[in-house]
UniProtKB/TrEMBL annotation:
It comes from the Bacteria. Residues 13-135 form the Activator of Hsp90 ATPase homologue 1/2-like C-terminal domain. SUPFAM superfamilies: Bet v1-like. Belongs to the AHA1 family. Pfam families: AHSA1 (PF08327). The lineage of its organism: Bacteria, Pseudomonadati, Bacteroidota, Flavobacteriia, Flavobacteriales. This is Uncharacterized conserved protein YndB, AHSA1/START domain. InterPro entries: ASHA1/2-like_C, START-like_dom_sf.
C-alpha cells in the first residue's frame, strides 16, 4: 500500500498559511471534513518530538475521537512530518508558488479500515476546509 496524496493552492502568502495551519486558535475553525463536524479543541507543540492532539466531534454528539501524532521533522514554512500511534506517517509540504499563493501537498499512509478513495475524499475535504478558512478569514 503506497502513500496517498492530496493538495491545494491557497491564495495567501506561505507565512500566513503556515501560521493558520499550525495555530490551535485557527485549527479549531477549519479542521473538519464536513459542516456536521467540529474540532472543539486543539493542542500543538510544533517541534521534533512534540505532540499534537485535535478533538474531532460530530456536532450532534453521536461520535468523536482524538486525532493525535508526534512530530518527526519540522522545517518552518516548508515541511512537517509526523507519525500517528499506529505507525502511519504523514508528510505535509508548503511551497510558495508566488508572493500570495502557497501550495500544500500532503502525503499520508492510508489506514486499512476504509477504502482509499474514501480516505482521499475525507483528507481532501479537510484541506479544502482549510483553504476556505485561510482565504476568507485571514
Amino acid at each position: 500500500m503506497g502513500k496517498l496524496t492530496i493538495s491545494a493552492e491557497i491564495n495567501k502568502p506561505v507565512d500566513q498559511v503556515w501560521e493558520a495551519y499550525n495555530d490551535p486558535k485557527d485549527i479549531v475553525n477549519w479542521n473538519f471534513a464536513h459542516e456536521s463536524w467540529s474540532c472543539p479543541s486543539s493542542e500543538n507543540d510544533l517541534k521534533v518530538g512534540g505532540k499534537f492532539k485535535n478533538r474531532m466531534e460530530a456536532k450532534d454528539g453521536s461520535f468523536g475521537f482524538d486525532f493525535e501524532g508526534v512530530y518527526d521533522d519540522v522545517r518552518p514554512l516548508e515541511l512537517i512530518k509526523y507519525h500517528m500511534e499506529d505507525g502511519r506517517e504523514v508528510e505535509t509540504n508548503f511551497k510558495a508558488l508566488s508572493l500570495n499563493k502557497t501550495e500544500i501537498l500532503v502525503k499520508f499512509d492510508p489506514e486499512t479500515q476504509n477504502p482509499e478513495d474514501m480516505q482521499l475524499q475525507g483528507w481532501q475535504a479537510i484541506l479544502n476546509s482549510f483553504k476556505n478558512y485561510a482565504e476568507t478569514k485571514l
